[in-house]
Recover the amino acids of this structure.
């Protein structure tokens, strides 16, 4: 059958519309497919953004002062000769006591002429001596206020006798000096907000004969006699760890507990400062009745002397475990600050 011109035109139009309809359908399908892909990408990106935001707002883990100290460690103390003065070749910096190295809280201590162990706590300045086996930290008094500078107020000036003059064998717990330290703590620390972070600590309160002193290796976890208190004095062993040496004739000044040389402070400003220990001294002879105590002498040596002359003293405290590092680098001008 032959199509006339009118029929051919109609047929052409119908085919054209059919083709256009098919093309339009393909276009719609393509657009919908692209839109779905775009929506999927947007959704995925949104999920990633949410995850990133969650990670950003996650609070940082606190840095504990114990870990700051541990991070400075130069290793264990096996290479240190405690019968020789501290130096760059015989211990200067932070070390760990070898036999505690595997403990949950190893004992770290400062030794030598260090300048980075200052800390402000309870509105007073102190120097860090060592850590404890529970994560606490022992401090020795420097001065009142936030200025870490030594002067005549850096000690408890006791012109009276620090100890009862009795036969050898007495202890810190029964001495006059304990009364002075306890009174100082009550008047200067107990009324501060940070006093809640001072541990009621077990302090070693031993007797070490002068013969033992010549061969003794420092011990911090084993004591034959103890006293529990908020404040006390450094032990013989802690001064040895810091760099002191028992020697009545030598000059041993290269450690931070010897103040005058290491801190450019004259003896007149410090009123003949000494650092008395909790550790009672006893002559080798059992017939001796002189009451003596170890202290840091004018040449920096760890010496033993009769208590009847009286000494200036520097108290110590132990702050509780969990002290969080806030700021500072431990120097006199920028001491550590902590919180709990």
């Amino acid at each position: 059958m032959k199509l006339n011109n009118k029929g051919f035109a109609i047929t052409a139009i119908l085919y054209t519309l059919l083709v256009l309809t098919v093309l339009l359908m393909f276009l719609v399908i393509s657009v919908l497919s692209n839109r779905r892909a775009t929506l999927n990408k947007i959704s995925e990106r949104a999920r990633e953004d949410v995850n990133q935001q969650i990670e950003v707002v996650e609070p940082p883990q606190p840095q504990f002062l114990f870990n700051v100290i541990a991070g400075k460690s130069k290793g264990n103390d096996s290479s240190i000769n405690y019968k020789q003065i501290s130096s760059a070749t015989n211990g200067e910096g932070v070390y760990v006591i070898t036999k505690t190295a595997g403990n949950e809280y190893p004992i770290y201590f400062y030794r030598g002429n260090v300048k980075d162990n200052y800390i402000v706590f309870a509105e007073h300045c102190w120097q860090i001596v060592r850590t404890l086996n529970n994560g606490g930290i022992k401090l020795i008094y420097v001065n009142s206020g936030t200025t870490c500078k030594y002067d005549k107020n850096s000690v408890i000036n006791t012109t009276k006798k620090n100890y009862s003059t009795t036969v050898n064998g007495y202890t810190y717990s029964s001495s006059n000096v304990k009364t002075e330290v306890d009174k100082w703590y009550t008047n200067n620390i107990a009324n501060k907000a940070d006093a809640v972070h001072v541990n009621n600590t077990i302090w070693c309160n031993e007797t070490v004969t002068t013969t033992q002193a010549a061969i003794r290796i420092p011990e911090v976890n084993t004591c034959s006699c103890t006293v529990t208190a908020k404040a006390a004095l450094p032990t013989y062993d802690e001064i040895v760890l810091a760099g002191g040496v028992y020697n009545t004739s030598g000059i041993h000044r290269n450690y931070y507990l010897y103040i005058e040389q290491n801190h450019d402070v004259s003896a007149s400003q410090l009123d003949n400062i000494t650092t008395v220990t909790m550790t009672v001294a006893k002559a080798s002879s059992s017939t001796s009745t002189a009451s003596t105590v170890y202290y840091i002498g004018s040449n920096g040596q760890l010496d033993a002397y009769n208590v009847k002359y009286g000494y200036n003293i520097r108290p110590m405290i132990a702050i509780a475990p969990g002290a969080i590092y806030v700021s500072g680098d431990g120097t006199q001008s920028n001491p550590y600050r902590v919180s709990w």
Remarks:
- The chain is about 25% helix and 25% strand.
- The CA atoms of residues 43 and 161 lie 81 Å apart.
- Residues 5-57 form the longest helix (53 residues).
- The chain has two domains: 1-58, 67-339.
